[in-house]
Write a structure and sequence with these properties.
156 residues; alpha/beta; 4-stranded mixed sheet; 4 helices; 7 strands
Length: 156
């Protein structure tokens, strides 16, 4: 279901040239990067999947902080790792994405953190954007940044 905006809080525009072997920049110049396909290791480049993962991780971290505050908790030290997979599908398009968010919060055990992840998923704009289109896994890990990084690295 598409949900229309009732008001705009922020607007930005990015311009791409050359596809996966080109570049992308924003109107304000704060982002200006060269691109290379994911499997090519070209120094000084990134790819769209990395940009998407970075944006999703940052957005989800903010959503988690908002939700945690509602429960009287501080999530400012949360660690969110966002893994984005690009793969093939059995659809006419032929390609798709899958996302795993691995989250650790110091002082929290994974089972206690999981409900906050589901609530953050409900309010995160990136989660809303992919809902019903991209498989999304929410993985809570026991409360250290190292645990979240290790869990995300183990999945890679």
């Amino acid at each position: 279901m598409t949900v229309p905006l009732t008001s705009s809080l922020y607007r930005t525009t990015a311009h791409a040239a050359g596809g996966r072997t080109g570049s992308v920049r924003t109107d304000d110049g704060r982002l200006d990067v060269r691109l290379a396909p994911p499997r090519k290791k070209v120094p000084g480049t990134t790819n769209p999947e990395q940009l998407f993962a970075a944006g999703f991780a940052a957005c989800f971290t903010s959503a988690l902080a908002e939700v945690a505050a509602e429960f009287g908790a501080d999530a400012s030290s949360a660690h969110v790792a966002c893994e984005v997979q690009l793969g093939t599908t059995d659809t006419p398009a032929g390609y798709g994405l899958a996302v795993t968010l691995t989250v650790g919060l110091p002082g929290w055990r994974a089972p206690d953190l999981q409900p906050l992840l589901h609530r953050a998923d409900a309010v995160c704009p990136y989660s809303q954007a992919v809902r019903g289109n991209v498989p999304l896994t929410l993985l809570a890990v026991d409360g250290t940044a190292e645990a979240a990084e290790a869990a995300a690295d183990d999945r890679a």
